[in-house]
Amino acid sequence: MALVKDSMGMGERRSTSQSLVSWTRLRPYAMISPAILVFCLFFIYPIGYMVYLSFHDWNFVSPTKEFIGTANFTYLLSNLEFREVIVNSFIYTFFTVFLTIGISLLLALWLNRGGAIYSFLQASIFSPHITSLVSVSMLWMWIMDADYGLLNWALNLIGIESIPWLTSPDYALTSLIMVAVWKGIGFNTLVFIAGLQSIPKDLYEAAELDHTPPWRRFLRITVPMLSPTLFFLTIIGIINSFQVFETINLMTEGGPINSTNTFVYYIYQYGFQFFKIGYASAAGVILLVILSVLTVIYFKVLSKKVHYR
Amino acid sequence: MKKLSFLLMMTVALFVLAACSGSGEEEGSAAANSVEASDEKIELTYWYAWGDKIGENNENLVKQFNESQDKIHVTAEFQGSYDELHAKTQAAFAAGNAPEVTQNEIASIGTFAKSGMTQDLTSFVEGDQEINMDDFNPGLMGNSYVDDKLYGLPYLRSTPILYMNTTMAEEVGLDLAGPQNWEEFQEYAEAFTNEEGRVGMSMAIDIWFYEAFIAQAGGSTMNEDSTEVTFNSEEGAAAYDLWRNMSKEGTLKLNSGTEAGEKARQDFVNGHAGMHFASTADLSYLLQLAEEQGFELNTYFMPSGKEAKVPTGGANLVMTSGLEEEKQQAAWEFIKFMTATEQTVYASEFTGYLPSRVSAAESEEMQALYEEKPQFKVAVDQLQNGNARPMAEEYPEIAKILVDEMTRGALDESIPTEDVLNAAAEKADALLK
User: Where along the sequence do coiled-coil regions lie (chain B) (predicted)?
Assistant: First the structure.
């Protein structure tokens, strides 16, 4: 410090001001450099390494990685199983996000009022969100058991035949979507309620004075004012759904017959069960591309319709 | 507005990045925390699969080892099923903190050895006067050698056997001698089946059982060199048709899904099925469950087709590669202890696993046990029909393909058997090229 002070005192005014200017310029970068460093180390580097691996044939352990060009990608894209994985992922994501947001919005509209009973209901709906996914999976495996499960027992009571929820390729993906929606509603409802409460009351009062019918108030005031929340939840929902892993790993292991195999489980399966890291990385790269494209489209198209205050 | 959208974009980007990088790398740090006090001792970590009786057996044997000497301390850690154990071992090996000693399910010995994760044990055997390799049951050694080098010692080994609820068999007037061949197996299954939903047998569509049936039909799932699949053959079709026909008649319930094996066991224990295929390793546990449920059970050879054959199963003990010499010696001592005669007797009595040493099978304790509970002897006797399992590097993937296609065929009876097996063979061939 002393040295710096010294040189500042003795040096020409010009150079002092110059170094001051450059420090002013550099300071922001210096301040964020730790964050950038962490970001590069834990996010940029792994992604780069994944892309690198996707062009190689490697079993994770052997000292040599054989460069095979785009062979992993051509094999993936010609592989029927992988096509099923893509289709499953899109179906799962679409229905999970659509249903979660639809149901949550309705619940939020209903529960957005004072009173102990509504607070209690809000808390109850939120509770699945704070339960670990592993417990949730175990619970639903028991509920959805084809022979001894609660759900089929209830269906039998009202005269409906048992459904092989998790053991038939016709139902397994639907069952997983049900669990995801059940788990996701709580958080989404809470965020929607927060969004609803931030809408100024005077807008509704003005509308009421004009005798605007309720459905119109909903479409013209609630929806536009809620659009940032809607936008945020959709994006988060899409990304989370594409990454579904725990429930699939525990409840179906991608089966029966590949019917619930989605991206992350497929990557895990090839990387850690069949020891094909290059192949798994190539699938990871494709997931990255799909998610990036979806996100960009979403921002380009929908952000224009979002009303930020 | 711009600021907010930028913030969102960054958040989104973070999520995306986390998705792609975070999926696989959290596993396998368990080995790191095994370092404990007692400075002089060599610390080893040992990973094992399966809980209940089998898990207790592993923990007990490790405790015996730690108490038997004061130079080495072993920490045993449970890692789930064989698949989970293998996945975790591999991840830990790549991260440089693999356990010194672990189990390889016998069909995976080749995969681990060829990728360099496990240590060639040949020189340890040659340099050791104490160990008598001829004492290991020769029927169990088929999955120990890779390219003529020894990679694992037979530890908790098994064969599938037939369990029958004899209380129920008496009720329906069946001969307690059990079904000897496929025809009798079908007759027994029919006799057990009733209108209240009880079936002859509830069974997982499982590669190990299929290996048994295809071998009984005179075939195999892969050729001897493990270079091509051979299940799309007359023998393969005969084995699969037996299942399908029985399933169609309603005498055999084929389960699929992650809980298929557990479901089969529940059905048997709850009296919803008269018979059960399972590893001999489940014997102690099933005897206990049967007692709780108030029925008697007996064990039998798997029914034979043209031939009387069964695959062997279970796990061998292996040492991971790249250890310092001191640790290698310690690991070898541990492996030797775990597979010695006394411990083999203990494990076999405790779980029902095969006594993998001849001296153990002939020991007084085992003979006394066979006298008292003859159910334990069946698997040992059946071992004369034992086959090794295929050891191709791609076998785990091939098994998944085959089970998937067989599940498809089980759910949709209209697909011809040939098409089911050919579809699986076509996909498997693409892998082997």
Answer: none
